[in-house]
Amino acid sequence: MEETHTESKGSVALIILTIIVVLAAMKVCQSVMVPIVLAMFVYFLLGPLLDRMDHAHIPHFIGVVICFLLMIVIMGFSFWIVYQTVSMLVGVVPTYVDKVDALDKMLTSWLSKYVDIPTGSSFLSMMPIQWKSILMNGLTTVSSQAIGVVKVLVLVILYVLFLLLERPMFVPKLYMAFAGSSHGPMVAMMSQRISRQVSKYLQLKAVISFLTGLLFYLTAVVAGMDVPMLYGILAFVFNFIPSIGSIIVTVLTILMCIVQFAPVWSPVIFVGIMTLSIEMVLGNIIDPKLQGGQLNLSPVFILISLAIWGYIWGIVGMFIAVPLTCCCEILCANIKGLQPIAIILSGGTSVKRQSEQQKAMRKKAKKEQKAGESDASAMAQAEEEEAKGTQNSDVILPDSFANKDKKR
Prior knowledge:
By secondary structure, the protein is mainly α. It contains 16 helices and no strands. The two termini are 25 Å apart.
């Protein structure tokens, strides 16, 4: 017994060490891995469209050309919008410097009634933040990194092209690679499950993000804010970062509205109400309802994954943290020694569902007992289901694995 316990401890330590080494290698190889991973997610987005064209008996090569051209058009249009927005932003920066100085004087005058502020000091000068240098450094960084972004996008486009061309042969190659192993069908189904789950998540997230960006843009236009396209772009981009992204873009939009309109507060109130309402409805009601808990990830571990992938790959890692964690969960669920990790990562929605079913069974059994029609086996079954409830979880598994688990 002691030897078995020692071996289990050793295997857990080995798994943890392997995970740390893999994550460290991914951080070191960031320049190589990021374009490949981004290309995989673009491939997941275009995959369903290519499948529909295949089902419509359109030649695969023509379907690939259509998807490739669609990707080029979307990227070109996005670049044009970003270029126009940055050009407009550069033009209004000097004006905003003066507006920030005026807002600083107003805040200093208001605070001097309640706090003793030294002569010659101001509200912003007392804060340990050099906002002017941060703004100028930020604009310089964006322009200096533009060439690097173009290089990454060129690599992504090339990777996506070859991934689309290789798509029909991917699953058959998996079957052939594992033809002599009993795990062949499971590996193939696991890859299909990852592709299906991630594709659906990215498609729904892209639609919700587009609606969020459009509504932020319209809100800025109605309020009369400068460069309204900027807030639409930021809302679209940051909506891909769960929880944190919506908070950042909402706070930033309201702060910029204060800088532009203070001391006139009616536009600020309008923008505050509209942005909070948009994020509340789309982010907390419509998005979860459309997703339907399909990724089944724990909210706590979503935030942890944001921190981990953000540390490994920066802002790009935060954008793709959720689908990457989903892939890790599916992989762990199908590797015997890593199944506990999949259970911990999961949201456990089936546990809640099973608990409700068990309560309904107990209530039914009690009613039957009171009516004199109770059955001892019914009560025993209810107790047995209750005992098993804590051992199950809603881990996303391929069908073959789930069926094996049911047979047991």
